[in-house]
UniProtKB/TrEMBL annotation:
One of its GO terms (molecular function) is iron-sulfur cluster binding. Residues 1-29 form the 4Fe-4S ferredoxin-type domain. Keywords: Electron transport, Iron, Iron-sulfur, Metal-binding, Transport. The keyword Protein transport does not apply. The keyword Metal-binding applies. This is Ferredoxin. It comes from Desulfosalsimonas propionicica. The lineage of its organism: Bacteria, Pseudomonadati, Thermodesulfobacteriota, Desulfobacteria, Desulfobacterales. Ferredoxins are iron-sulfur proteins that transfer electrons in a wide variety of metabolic reactions.
Length: 64
């Protein structure tokens, strides 16, 4: 699984970094989240999907 953030949509609330901090890091200076892995480890896949579902603007793009 791969995951990206669409910065045209991200509103910077940081929820993804609370749901799965192993994959999403919140940058307090930029007020944006970023993905810290190139490939999502299998054990975090469900929480990455959850973060994508909870991302209100739909900014998390998951590639299975
Ligand atoms: S949950 Fe979505 S809108 Fe919020 S910081 Fe993460 S990618 Fe951006």
């Amino acid at each position: 699984m791969k995951v990206q953030i669409d910065y045209d949509l991200c509103m910077g609330d940081g929820n993804c970094s609370k749901v799965c901090p192993e994959v999403f890091e919140y940058d307090n200076d930029q007020m944006l989240a970023r993905v810290t892995v190139s490939e999502v480890p299998a054990e975090y896949a469900d929480r990455v999907r959850q973060a994508a579902e909870e991302c209100a603007p739909g900014a998390i793009v998951v590639e299975e």
